Amino acid sequence: GAVVSQHPSWVICKSGTSVKIECRSLDFQATTMFWYRQFPKQSLMLMATSNEGSKATYEQGVEKDKFLINHASLTLSTLTVTSAHPEDSSFYICSATGQGGEKLFFGSGTQLSVL
Amino acid sequence: GENVEQHPSTLSVQEGDSAVIKCTYSDSASNYFPWYKQELGKGPQLIIDIRSNVGEKKDQRIAVTLNKTAKHFSLHITETQPEDSAVYFCAPDTGRRALTFGSGTRLQVQP
After folding, report:
1. Which helix (H) or strand (E) holds B97?
2. Residue B34 and residue A32: Cβ atoms within 8 Å?
């Protein structure tokens, strides 16, 4: 299957700093990428959908100015958590799909801990 | 939006037994029905999927059955092994590809 690489796998930061998470499709062109967050023992919740070259579409209740998403190329999307606070601590996961594809391929996730 | 319910929330079986997890959805436009396995600290991994024009699909020890009339589909794992222990999610899709995930089923296979 297709490979989606997500980095870093974990990050610890101080409150007020910004953190960038990268999601790369290694062997296919990802026309659409999705970002999720997952709290312990809970399901994945969609945060936003991004298409290459256009602005991301955010789900209701997700602050677009806090969670900046950039999908500048067909193989890379980034999620920046700006001015992170302890309540932003969570497991963030990206997924990607290619043009015309229905299968989603997920990254390995990033555990963010904000002190 | 899609309402997805998944049962049971936890399931403990003995090694070698079968496990069945059921997913009920609300949107009749759903046409793609995947199951994902998530191990601790990792992203979900697609293990099997089925489209709406097929009633059943099998891949070795794993199978998925679909009842579109009743709007539910199930994951069947036979001859369970300890490495099958994980959280399993259903995610019926209408084509939007963003997926609404079920609440998850934590499967524990006792050796």
Report:
1. none
2. no
Task: pLDDT band for A75, please (50, 70, 90 cuts).
Answer: very high
Classified as helix, coil or strand, A31 is strand
Say if residue B97's pLDDT is above 80. no
Contacts of B44 in chain A (CB under 8 A): 44, 93, 106
For residue A34, give the amino acid letter: F
Q: Which residues of B touch A4 (CB under 8 A)?
A: 43
For residue A37, pLDDT beyond 90: yes
Rounded Cα distance, A81 and B25, in Å: 32
Can you tell me whether residue A103 is helix, strand or coil?
A: coil
Which residues does chain A have within 8 Å of residue B9's beta carbon, measured at their own beta carbons? none
Reported as a single tens digit per residue, the pLDDT across B73-95 is 999 999 999 999 999 999 998 87
* CB contact (8 A) between residue A46 and residue B102: no
**More confident: A103 or A64:** A64
Test B42 with A105 for CB contact under 8 angstroms.
no
- Mean of pLDDT values over B16-27: 97
Give the span between the Cα atoms of B50 and B74, in whole angstroms: 11
